[in-house]
Write a structure and sequence with these properties.
The protein contains 13 helices and no strands. The chain has 327 residues and is mainly α. It has one domain.
């Protein structure tokens, strides 16, 4: 094996992923199925948010209000999108029961491709050369990351100390993001909502994996309960930022942030705190870093060059491919 030739020592000491735990192969298709549902959910939720803004005449750029959410509950498209996202979450959580966090999370990047195609069809904003390059960077970076993770990742139990560190870090991140949002909410860039929700969802995935593992081993204590509380808090604030992001940006930009920032945060936690790649040799760690940087670059590049963002900023008329949708 030429790929393994760059490593020193016995090959089986390093390629521990699918070779040591075949159950990982069950988690991968579940994660991919979740990505499909995520794409559909994002498109329909975005449609519902835009529709409510148009009907009420109230912009959600500074943060959605209670009135916005009550109106969203009356939109079939938004409710259907929420069901799709809920199904995506179920698929992802089930995948986490079979595979390591740093492998499952990045596979959601496939939803970016699907969402981009759907959004282009619905809005008529065909991807430009620069936006396609950005999408390739997002997906390519993440899938290189997945390839490495599939070979070197190991599933490890989370100790009480590690969980306390994760929960403490989450509390700091939550406080910082909410504070920044309160200070700049009137002039918040769409990328803030995308990045903020991605960061929080990375913690959600990590805590969900921890809860699943502890339930499987019947190790339920007060820390497990605190973990669930932290998970719900991160999910609630992250979901709020996602819905606001739909009000100020195209769905594929939102998905780009979630499918890159989310797994990057989850992977950083997996690498630094959970030690899921403790057996990985240094070339794999370098590969993680390079692939991650390429993927993050893709998100920021897409935010800058997305045709719908450019069109909206210039207020150009666009012939929409999907027409108006009543939902």
């Amino acid at each position: 094996m030429a790929f393994a030739g760059v490593y020193t020592g016995d090959v089986t000491d390093h390629l521990v992923g699918v070779f040591r735990d075949p159950a990982i192969l069950i988690g991968i298709p579940l994660a991919l199925l979740g990505a499909v549902f995520m794409s559909l959910g994002a498109q329909y939720q975005h449609r519902g948010v835009v529709k409510v803004e148009r009907l009420t005449g109230a912009s959600g750029s500074g943060g959605l209000t209670l009135r916005h959410f009550l109106n969203l509950l009356r939109r079939p498209s938004w409710v259907f999108g929420t069901v799709m996202l809920g199904t995506a979450v179920v698929c992802q959580l089930t995948a986490l029961a079979f595979a390591p966090l740093i492998l499952v999370q990045p596979l959601g990047a496939i939803s970016l491709v699907i969402t981009t195609l759907l959004n282009a069809r619905v809005t008529g904003h065909k991807p430009t050369g620069k936006s396609v390059t950005a999408i390739v960077a997002c997906v390519g970076g993440i899938f290189v990351f997945v390839t490495i993770a599939a070979l070197v990742a190991t599933d490890t139990p989370v100790s009480d100390l590690q969980l306390l560190v994760i929960l403490g870090l989450l509390a700091v991140v939550l406080a910082a993001l909410v504070t920044v949002w309160l200070l700049v909410r009137k002039n918040t860039h769409p990328l803030f909502y995308v990045v903020a929700s991605g960061v929080l969802y990375g913690f959600v995935a990590t805590l969900a994996k921890t809860v699943i593992t502890r339930l499987q081993s019947q190790d339920v204590n007060w820390l497990t309960v605190l973990c669930v509380v932290g998970l719900v808090a991160a999910l609630a604030v992250g979901a709020y930022f996602v819905q606001t992001a739909y009000a100020v940006g195209p769905p594929d930009l939102v998905i780009a942030g979630l499918t890159v920032i989310d797994p990057m945060v989850a992977v950083l936690i997996g690498l630094t705190i959970l030690r899921e790649a403790a057996t990985a040799p240094w070339p794999a760690l370098v590969g993680f870093a390079v692939a991650g940087l390429v993927a993050v670059y893709g998100v920021f590049s897409l935010a800058r060059h997305h045709p719908q963002v450019i069109s909206d900023s210039r207020q150009l008329p666009i012939n929409r491919g999907g027409g108006d949708h009543p939902a």
